Amino acid sequence: MKSFGLILVLCASLASAHYTFPSLVVGGKTSAAWQYVRETNNYNSQAPVTDVTSADFRCYDSATNPTTSTVTIAAGSQLGIECDNTIYHPGVVNVYMAKAPSSVTGWAGDGAVWFKVYQISAVTNGGTSISWPAQNLPGVTFTIPKNLPTGQYLVRIEAIALHTASTYGGAQFYISCGQLNVTGGGSGKPGPLVSIPGVYTGYEPGILININYPIPKNYTQPGPAVWSG
Ligand SMILES: *[C@@H]1O[C@H](CO)[C@@H](O)[C@H](O)[C@H]1NC(C)=O
Ligand SMILES: *[C@@H]1O[C@H](CO)[C@@H](O)[C@H](O)[C@H]1NC(C)=O
Ligand SMILES: [Cu+2]
Q: Ligand 1: which atom is nearest the Cα of residue 105?
């Protein structure tokens, strides 16, 4: 319980403890901040979203009305999504994508169009320990599925911080949406498809959870299974 109190104090006192995901890494090159990522409302405050039902749970950009460029990337190659800090808090990561009907510029991402392409979960050990492989990473890197159809996509990262998640609405979501032009794709059928918001109620065992005591025996990653193509 001692370390739980310490984390709360650190969280409240250090704005630098919070983070955004403003850059993409394509072909080993890191983009400028907000070049290919829609500028989020928290670009300055870095504060999280906590209401999983709000419209801002999707891309967190209602206040910025961002115009963003689109980066071209080949299916089967690596995409990085970089943090402006590190993923400071204990928690997990999900990355979703959604295919735009035509140009992704200005496309909102409405409807059941989102599928998961990557996740970093927790490591449990029958109740003796729990660890968070995403914690302190400078960002995430994953492969755009080789069979993903060619076209334009939104790519949405959510880093879920769980240090204050033991009451409803306590989990903190750090969110960004980037714009991708995927080339050389295949004929895969991505799924399961979900709506965002809508994918979570906030009562999931991996979202409403006390990670400190008792130490969770198991951890259930929020959201659908990863589509790997
Ligand atoms: C997407 O990539 C194709 C193939 O390289 C290119 O012709 C097209 O202009 C690109 N579109 C955007 C929006 O970057
Ligand atoms: C652990 O597994 C049990 C049994 O399936 C489930 O009820 C519980 O919600 C899980 N706990 C977490 C934190 O995912
Ligand atoms: Cu915090």
A: 13
